[in-house]
Structure formats: structure tokens, C-alpha cells
Design goal:
It is a single chain. The protein has 97 residues and is mainly β. It is built from 1 helix and 6 strands, in the order E-E-E-E-E-H-E.
């Protein structure tokens, strides 16, 4: 299943900015370090972050792209079951320089 998510906020700038749209696939074979994912976090609700680490049980350590993002220590390890999908494509609202 494919879904479209609108980016809200600047925590993933410069890669993704407020107003961009991302296409998200629920059908991904394997997540790897560096992939962008949309997760339903228990505290922060639906967020887009980059996979920084994956532990032995499949939980993810996620990070933003800049200092305005929620820090990984605040989010903690995110269970794989919370992943809504992997970002596979971005439509930018403002052309990047």
C-alpha cells in the first residue's frame, strides 16, 4: 500500500521541509540505516525520521536532520511495529538549491 504524507515542520531540513510531500510504502522488505521512515510514536504521534541504528530485536534508533529535531534520546528505541512505512519518494514544495 502506498500513501502520501505532508511534511510538517523543519526537523528534517534541509532534506525535507515544511510543505513537502513524501510517498510512503508499507511494503518494504528490510529497513536499513539511512532509510527515512514514518512512525507512529507513542509520544510524538506521526513523525518522519532517519534510521540511525537497528538493534537485534528490530527496534529503531531514529534521528532528525538538524538540531531543531526531537533528539534520539528523547524518542528512545522505537519498536518495528510502530513503523507506518518507508519513504520512497519526495515531492518538494520549494525547489532545493
Amino acid at each position: 500500500m502506498l500513501s502520501v504524507v505532508k511534511v510538517k515542520g523543519m526537523s528534517m531540513a534541509p532534506r525535507l521541509v515544511d510543505g513537502d510531500y513524501v510517498f510512503v510504502s508499507r511494503f518494504h522488505r528490510r529497513l536499513k540505516v539511512g532509510h527515512l521512515v514514518v512512525v507512529n510514536h507513542a509520544t510524538y504521534q506521526s513523525i518522519i525520521k532517519r534510521v540511525q541504528k537497528i538493534n537485534a530485536n528490530g527496534s529503531l534508533w531514529l534521528t532528525g536532520e538538524n538540531d531543531s529535531s526531537v533528539q534520539p534520546e528523547e524518542m528512545g528505541w522505537v519498536p518495528r511495529a510502530r513503523v507506518l512505512g518507508k519513504v520512497i519518494f519526495c515531492v518538494c514544495a520549494i525547489p532545493k538549491k
